[in-house]
Each structure stands twice: as C-alpha cells, then as structure tokens.
Amino acid sequence: DGVTEVLAHRSDNLQDKFIEIPCSEDYDSHKRFAGCTPRKCGRGVTDAVITREEAVRIRRIAERGLSLGGSDGGASILDLHSGALSLGKHFVNLYRYFGDKIQDIFTEEDFALYRDVRQRIQQRIAQVFGISPSAMYLTKPTFFSRMNSTGAKTTHDEYWHPHVDKVTYGSFDYTSLLYLSDYSEDFGGGRFVFMDADSNKTVEPRAGRVSFFTSGSENLHRVEKVQWGTRFAITISFSCDPEHGIGDPRLA
Fold it and tell me: Which branch of life, at top level (predicted)?
C-alpha cells in the first residue's frame, strides 16, 4: 500500500480537521448547480457534531433493524428511506415484508433522532464548504452498514474495492459517514482509506465521528476488510440536484 498516514486516530477527539484538495473534473460531466456543486473540494473529520451517546442510540436503531435480516456475507445493509434490508443473498423491502410489525421495532423517537443527526451533519458540511444547507438534498443511497469478517457471498458483500462515489452514483456531490462503533475495540481492520497518488490517508472509526468529503475522483477511497468484530456506520449522501432529493424516513 505504500505510505500510510493516519488522518484521524481513534483516540483523537477532533473539533474540526479539514484538508482542501483540488477538485477533479468529474463534476463537469454533470449539470452544475451554482452555490452547491463543489468548487472547493476536500475531506474533513469531526468528533464535535454527534455525541458518543447519540451514536450508541443510533446504533441501536441499526441493530434492531438488521436483527430482522442480515446478509449471508460480511456486509449487511439497512436503508430506512427505501426500506431495503439485506436478507440472505438478496434484499427485501422492510416495510412491505414486515408490515405493521415495524411499529414494534422502531419508534417515532428513533426517526426523530435519525433526522436530527442527518440535519446536523448536513449543516456542518455546508458550513465547511461555504454553501447553504438548503442547496443540498439528501440523496440515495443513504443507509446503515454492518460489516464483519464473514466471507463474501455476493458482489454486494465486497465492500473493500476502491471506488469514487460520483462515478458509482452520479447523484452524489457530498458524502458523509457517521461511525457507530470503535476501531480496535469493537472491530479490527475496517479503517476508511483515502487513496491518494502519493500515499494512503486513513480514518480510524470512533462512535460519533463524522467523516465527510466531496464525492469526486479527488477522494478515491476504500474500506479495509474487517478482520474481527462488527463495524457499524451510516453513509449519508447529498446531491446538489433537487431531482435526486429524497425525504427523511417516516414511521408509517
């Protein structure tokens, strides 16, 4: 892997760490939205937006939802927006599959906390990149992930490949991750790695830590394979294009 530099150690308590990097040309092949499409690009990490207690509460939402299903492989997904839930080698729609039972699993407070956390992350990203939060739209996929050391059974389980979010999902302009468990305490491996030409820059997950970045090729990244334990996180993504906007999940 060449040189590896740790951007954020698990033991750090970071107010705001931001590194500006030149924007890639990826945004030029999509419609530009003034006051939102990245002109300033980079990556940031903060432990000051979401508390560890809130992260624990959010993780419980993920644990309850994923207890209904789970992948046969190492990576399970729960998307409260679309209802997508890993089940064996496939996905089911949580809301259709479990119907009224959903009310026994999630509460209005769960969804209110989820919404509040999402809004705070959106505000922080907007502040750092000098844009208005109202110019950004929550987009899909926005989802919980649970990763462990089980071998991959389908391509969905192969989360460790390097990728660019803007290339994978054209709608993404800003990507964020909220970590819900602690590197080296809850799991081994599973660090987030920015892959730069000269070196790798890693973020060690810590419950409540938010990592965020512009979604173009300037931020090619991957996640290391989880070696032991269980890693929980939420990917929360934003688009500048209102047509790609999605609403917050609602408890029907």
Answer: Eukaryota
